[in-house]
Amino acid sequence: MKKKIIKFITSFKIIIVLSLISLIYFAFIASSRYESTAIIGVKSTSTTTDTSSLIPIIGLTSSSKEDLMYLKEYINSYDMLTILQKDINIKAMYEGKIDYELFLKNLDVKEDFLKYYQSRIKVVYDDITGLLSIKINAFSPEDSKKIADTILKESENFINEISHKIAREQMSFAKEELEKASLELSKAQDEINKFQNTNSMLDPVSQAKTQSAIKTQIEEKIIAKEVELATLNSYLNSNTPQVKALKSELDALKSQLKKEANKLTSKDKNDKLNYLAIDFSNLSFKLKFAEDAYKLALASYEKSRLEANKKLKQVIIISSPVLSEIAIYPNVIYDVFSVFFILTLVFGIIKFTYSIIEEHRY
């Protein structure tokens, strides 16, 4: 009897018998599974890029492909499974069904539950179309569609949360920059006010220009008077009243010219317009820079604030899940032939190993 059993096990008949058992299981015993398919993409609602904003510098935006890859991992995650369990009690959809994978797993154990869930969904990103295909199979058409619909709804929430999280980070950054710019602007304004009060002068640059214009006018008058004096000296004595008066007027103009020149330039830095004008120009440039930085920071903050409150990206459903009318699992022919080939391979290895042992026994 023992020899007959060993002979049977080591014969190819065992493969035939096991294949027939698998055929009976897949064809008549295993619970049928139905599949629902959804095809989705992600589209950004932002169509313009504001180059005057600080937002592009931050670099926190993500592409549609990145969003879909994140979404793919999220759909396969335990977080998604937890939501499915909470919203539609997905475990009840699996329990009590005849499935050899269910027989090998305990759905009360998180790890087994997640692995079984992952074995019942297939999420594939298509590099050519840039779309995500989600296939869900369950033991009834209604269950597979319900799972697919819930996944799509949570996918929309997930994409919105990603984009809003990015927008909130952008807004936080923009707010910090706005506060810094506001502080710098306030400091620059205080320095200008302090300078004007200390020197009792509103704008040294404008005053220097006015002073320079006065000096130029005096120089022009001096030149005219010198020409007039040279003309008088050509036909009058230098002691004549006209000549003396003109010389006195010329001396007064030169004296005034010296005073005006001293106001403009001097080695004394404290009270001369040239030094004050340079200091004021530096302060004015600093104030202008602070104002421009403040305007840019304010525009960035307003932009990020608006984007944080609107729908930045949305999931586009290219193909909605529908109720399947035909069970596509188990695929009897494929599954039976798979079992047959695997058993044949294992049988060949065992047979080969057994023959080697037999040859070396004697």
Keywords, please?
4-stranded antiparallel sheet; 362 residues; 9% strand; alpha+beta; 13 helices; 4 strands
Give a quick rundown of the structure:
With about 350 residues, the chain is α+β, with helices and mostly antiparallel strands. The protein has 13 helices and 4 strands. It starts with a helix and ends with a helix.
| Terminus-to-terminus distance | 24 Å
**Oligomer class:** single chain
Helix and strand run: HHEHHHHHHEEHHHHEH
Described by the principal axes of the CA atoms, the overall outline is rod-shaped
Q: Strand content of the residues, in percent?
A: 5-15%
> Spatial order of the strands in the main sheet?
2-3-1-4
What gyration radius follows from the Cα positions, in whole Å? 45 Å
Find the count of extended strands (DSSP E, 2+ residues): 4
> How many helical stretches?
13
| Biggest sheet descriptor | 4 strands, antiparallel
Low-confidence region ranges: 48-61
Structural class estimated from helices and strands:
alpha+beta
- The helix fraction, in percent, is 55-70%
* Mean model confidence by pLDDT: 85
